[in-house]
Specification:
There is one protein chain. By secondary structure, the chain is α+β, with helices and mostly antiparallel strands. It is built from seven helices and four strands. A four-stranded antiparallel beta sheet has the order 1-2-3-4, covered by helices on one side. Strand 2 and strand 3 form a beta hairpin. It is elongated. It starts with a helix and ends in a 7-residue tail after the last helix.
Amino acid sequence: MRGDSLELADELAAIPSLTMSKLVERWRVLGLGEPPRLPLPLMQRLLAQLLQEQVYGGLSAKAMRQLEAAAGAATNDVSKGVSAGSSASRLVSQDAADPSGEAPARPALPLLPKGIARPSPSRQVILTTGTRLVREWNGRTISVEVVDDHFVWNDAPYRSLSEIARAVTGTRWSGPRFFGIVGRG
């Protein structure tokens, strides 16, 4: 395993200097299939993660199911104005400890080398009743009011901010991103 760690460290150290074409070539050589079409910084982080998973293993199937469930709940919670962090961290922490209460032994993952930025944690935003979100779009001022379990725009109720963003722009948008209440991560 020590040799794998040293090789991995060398692989990770080389990633920031790879051009997109070299990164795609490396992706294919590693047998990862057809690479997704993503911006260079995201492709660098993704390749670094996949390389680490090959050496140290990925998340268990149970942890993946719990994260997917938490992500679905977080999406619903954000559109309803509820903090999403508590349910996600609770689900992950249940898997992190075994029945004896001790954390499972996992090898320490190497830090990403300089030049590969880690995604910043999402800001938790809680929208309470009475909050007004204002956004200018193509010369129009879009003003949305948060009401209990829905949103009101142009005197019409909407279940989510994404529905409003879609109605305004005519295309699919992340409602929280459209209104500037979450960053790009």
